[in-house]
Design a protein that fits this description.
This protein is an alpha+beta fold and 565 residues long. Helix content is 55%, strand content 12%. The strands form three sheets. Strands 9, 10, 11, 12, 13 and 14 form a six-stranded mixed sheet that branches. A five-stranded antiparallel sheet has the order 4-3-2-1-8, with no helix packed on it. Helix 12 packs parallel to helix 14 and helix 16 packs parallel to helix 18. 48% of the residues are buried.
Amino acid sequence: MPVATEYAPASGKLQVGDWTVEPALNQLSAAGKTVKLEPKTMAVLIYLADRPGQVVSREALLSAVWSDVVVGDDSLTQVVIKLRKALGDVPEKPAYIQTISKGGYRLIAPVVRSAEISSAAARPDASPLHAERRVLWIAGAGMAAVLLAAGVWWIEGERVTGVAPGQPTMADSDAARTAQPTVAIRPFEALGNDAEAVLLAQGITADLVTDLSKVSGLSVIGVAPAGGQGGDTPTDALPVRYLVSGSVQRVEKGLRLHVHLTDAETGTQLWSERFDRALSGFFAIQDELGPKILQILPAKVSEAELRRMAQRHTRNLEAYETFQRGQSALLVRQKAENETAREMFRRAIALDAAFARAYAGLALTYAADYRNQWTGDGAAALDRAGELARTAHQINPDIRETYWVLAFVHLERRQHEQALQYLETAVRLYPSFADAYALMGGIKTYMGRPADALPLLRTAMRLNPEAGYLYFLNLGRTYFALGDLEQARVNLEQALSRNPVNLEAHVYMAALYLTAGDKAAAAWKAEEIRALQPGFSSRAWLQTYPMTDVAQKTKLARALGELGF
């Protein structure tokens, strides 16, 4: 997929055919009727409205609206289906969105832009949930700003609403973190239109976070790209003192890397270096980066931590790039992309038979087959996942991913205590391992201890404010278990805006609407579930769902049963 800047629709009203469109509220109104749109659906509409009558390719829409995540064509197809339904459009005789064979889509309805468009269309309060939704999204003038700010705002909100009295808040742990120097790693920028440079930039960023996370006296967080939150400070989730940024460029047969270390409080550049190396020197650059940064930072580093940092996952550049492609495909969590990821991990292993992270990734593809019932023999798939996870750990028991994958396999087997033991070891070795805290929080909810999950999820999102959809899904599931439907809805919407084809998020949204008494919205979500997975059955879905808390499973089953599942 082409790399593009996140598309943020303007906040002004416009008229599209008979509908008044209000991007800031994510809603349409006409003839006394108001329809709410998901943020990505609104973004597609506005992108087309900015080009009325023009044929817009699917690739252009995917690059513009989903620039922050890798998704398949199904994501766009589902959004167009939702948009047509909201507009009352019929694909066979379109009045709004015309499908152009092998071309894309075209908005054929007239578009009028005016600040004077009346907003007097009736907005019936079908339910308190709808009223709250309007209040929440009124601040969303730009989609990119909404997606980023919402994650931080809701996590900070947990301080007063998320933890029940008497439950652990991790205050002592947070105080310890703020006493340590905190370094934020901004995603390295790939210069030029070079797909391989993009993969290398992603890899350098991820590996630098991993390497510095091995240092116990340092708090490490990942942050959004420059401009994601405005201002010079990358995040206020933790008091960031130091900021690492850089760029990667392919130069003929070589590689040019610029790295900067900045004092985030004063804006003073503490260190900067340019590396000009042959491509074969890529891993040597990685070996140098962590220690050079640590020489500047006021963190105490043990010899054992330096030895762990010196360990490279692979020395084969082609294997490394192939692994990065597999990682991108795996995160989509769809069957076709899962098979692509599996092929990429297998190629990486063929290029380097001792590549532990590739074995760990391959294990996750089999675990996904089991969870999503993409195979006729789920038990065999889960056994294979376990074998590969153990292989990864045996090859290199000193990398954090192997602990996480072993924990994930035990989670799928509903062996939650064993899973937690692996994760506790991981955060002891890697104190800034955000994904470990997130999975621990998810397991606590599956076990029926959602109040214990919240501080873990808060820690995860503080360490990774750029949080992907799985973090928000985790929070939505946890708030639903606690009965806080409003916070559950907001986080589930954030998850769906990042991955609109995630089945679990749709399932929870449907159950949430039904619990809130909004049967119309619940029925709409049920239709989306059927579109995503024809023949969906709550009984079959719950068979491989790792939740062991009987009360929560009963609540989900009852809600889905009322919706005809």
